[in-house]
Amino acid sequence: MSPNRRAFLQMIGVSELTAKLLARSDDGYNVLVGSTPDHPFLFASYADHPRQLIYLPKLGIKSSAAGRYQIKRDIFDAYKVQLKLKDFSPASQDAIAIQLIRECKALDDIEAGRLATAINKCRSRWASLPGAGYGQHENDFDTLALAYRRSGGVLV
What we know:
The protein is mostly helical. It has helices at about 5-15, 20-25, 75-80, 90-105, 105-110, 115-120, 140-150; strands at about 55, 60-65.
């Protein structure tokens, strides 16, 4: 995996979960939605998506999002078949994230270091990206660019 691609995945993990939560878990791969850095909710097995439906009172919704990229169970089920995945392991979660980015037509932008363009193209996939519009916390570009650069990503 190229340094920019790896940095973009790390940036999404930081955006969705925070760097502190990544550090208090298996790099975010075993985190359930609703976790906070001080109160992480972790799942124990990567054999399958944890399939827990968790109520989020601040948003008034239930969500099954899990893992480093906060993948919902129905998304996992679809990509498990499409990508021929055997489990919800870190490698499988990365494969799904890369496929989502590919579908947003952002891979070339990531490789070229056009971070703002790539984030804009992917904002429909991750609620924490600026301009996503899901009514959840959105990180600003400068925060994401810092996480991207700290992870070895290069901007143009």
